[in-house]
Amino acid sequence: MRWEDGRESDNVEDARGGGGFSIGGRGAGIGCGGLIVLLIVSWLTGVSPMRLLNMVQGTQSASPQAQSGQPGQPAQGEPGRPPQDQLGKFASVVLASTEDVWTDIFSKSGRTYHRPHLVLFSNAIRSACGMASTAVGPFYCPEDQKVYLDLSFFHDLSSRFGAGGDFADAYVIAHEVGHHVQDELGTFEQMGSGRSKGEGSAAVRIELQADCYAGVWGYHANQGKRMIEPGDFEEGLRAASAIGDDRLQRQSQGYVAPESFTHGTSQERSSWLRRGLETGDPGKCDTFRGE
Fold first, then answer.
1. Residue 11, φ and ψ in degrees, nearest 5
2. What's the pTM?
């Protein structure tokens, strides 16, 4: 990706306690096995990862670190500093690109796009949706309209899932921003409580639509700022396939349990991302009707 000369977003809060170490010329935090543990528990119990997180929230909130406001875990609403390291700047440029793309798309349909904030953290942080740890991976909190990301997830994406690369990392951010787009469009309200309960098909369709919206961003990022280089889209498709529920379950437990899917199969995730990348049309991302 050609991102180095891109605009950085003003909506990034760096709540990390310290800088990461360098991997391949870009800063990154350490990998976290907790992500795998939580996903395995989720698959075995059929309970969504966010619900599992909420179940342990009380314990985390009571910890001395959470109560002391330790660096890297600011109180909800506390402003953070803009990122200074290369990987943080990369995330900021990607967020800025999503802002430009979705502001333009919303404007053309007579809507106003309210830009979300991206909070970079390490280990754990308190969000309006509760305590969050690195183990749950990147997530969007509709209560405060912020995307939360521990940049060490990018290292895991490459080392554990074999799906590294700039565009693969950008896809992760664009997917979470896709949830914000759903929030702006009222998709969560239309689906009722299905998403919060992590109920099968509703949760999966919401995740697949966010994949498609990530592809819509990629299409326009290429058309406008020409950020995309040969092979970038393939990196994103490889990442989407690598983190499909069926593939992750087969790797972790040796069998697939479709009733516990939360994000969709590898084929579904890559297919919907591809649709967004090829059309650039959010109207083609209706995963609820398959259109």
1. -110, 35
2. 0.74
